[in-house]
Amino acid sequence: MVEPATDTIAATRLVPLLKDELDIVIPTIRNLDFLEMWRPFFEPYHLIIVQDGDPSKVIKDSACRCFGYMVSKKKYIFTIDDDCFVAKDPSGKAINALEQHIKNILSPSTPFFFNTLYDPYRDGADFVRGYPFSLREGAPTAVSHGLWLNIPDYDAPTQLVKPLERNTRYVDAVLTIPKGTLFPMCGMNLCFDRDLIGPAMYFGLMGDGQPIGRYDDMWAGWCTKVICDHLGLGVKTGLPYIYHSKASNPFVNLKKEYKGIFWQEEIIPFFQAATLSKDCTSVQKCYIELSKQVKEKLGKVDPYFDKLADAMVTWIEAWDELNPSGASATVSNGKA
């Protein structure tokens, strides 16, 4: 059984990276006691805590975290859930998840050619024989997607057939998700460059009153990946691990997910086929064009997608209103 780290107070304190350039965004429906174990790693940083709904009610909708993304004034965002604890690596050392995310995000990605030693920019690794020298400069990394020990991020049907399954495997690897490949992004252990991709990190029109839930982070991930591919940006996955402490109720999850389980068979091919015009030189322009395609093509699946497309436009309008300096930012071939 994998145990969470309990010795983090004694963790080695290093000079914090990006101390004045990164916000930590946490949506919560619980108290903040869990932050005590993160204190050695989080204390130098600015935190944005987003109350998940009415404090007197239990409303489990992690999409509220994107409000924190919008109001932040920092270049980078790290976000975790309130049931994510500090994990231990195989040697028993507490994992500084934030530090590893920062290393991932500050080093280039390799979306255009796969390196079989995974991340060539990590210590002890490099480009393998046959890797084109013209691509070794890499691309800017927009997203670092971390993983979880203990409770895996499963959908409701998998939870129901594997109720006792726990992830005990620690894989010491970081890799770039290749261009043209989608992935199911989980928002509970995530870091991104807000300047490069922030406007695409909208977790969708989901939760109470909507016909679908638990697809909020994945929707943001699909939009983000299509836009990163178009703009020449990279997305990494792998390290760091956190310890996911609490399994959600699979029957409640099934009620939230059941339409999404059917709809994703239409949604994923939509994103796989999505292309953006050359005029889309900023994240905002890409996102608006994508919203039009959502309305045109996914609106035929269900009227919900018409509302979602409108919400995507509203999100960009609100983002630009709160972040006027980034409204016209242009990214071309991965360079701002």
Largest sheet: 8 strands, mixed
Distance between the termini: 45 Å
Overall average residue pLDDT: 92
- The strand count comes to 8
The coarse silhouette is globular
Task: Enumerate the spans where pLDDT stays under 50 for 5 or more consecutive residues.
Answer: none
GO cellular component, one term: plant-type cell wall
Family: Belongs to the RGP family.
GO molecular function, one term: UDP-arabinopyranose mutase activity
Pfam family, one: RGP
Summarize this entry quickly:
Pfam families: RGP (PF03214). This is UDP-arabinopyranose mutase. With 336 residues, the protein is of the alpha/beta class.
Describe the fold and architecture.
- It is found in: Golgi apparatus.
- Keywords: Cell wall biogenesis/degradation, Golgi apparatus.
- InterPro entries: Nucleotide-diphossugar_trans, RGP_fam.
- One of its GO terms (cellular component) is plant-type cell wall.
- This is UDP-arabinopyranose mutase.
- This protein is α/β, with parallel strands linked by helices.
- The protein has helices at residues 35-42, 65-71, 97-106, 156-161, 194-197, 216-231, 250-273, 283-297, 304-322; strands at 22-28, 46-51, 76-80, 84-85, 141-150, 174-176, 189-193, 234-244.
- Strands 1, 2, 3, 4, 5, 6, 7 and 8 form an 8-stranded mixed beta sheet that branches.
- Strand 1, helix 1 and strand 2 (46-51) form a beta-alpha-beta unit.
- The radius of gyration is 19 Å and the shape is globular.
- The termini are far apart.
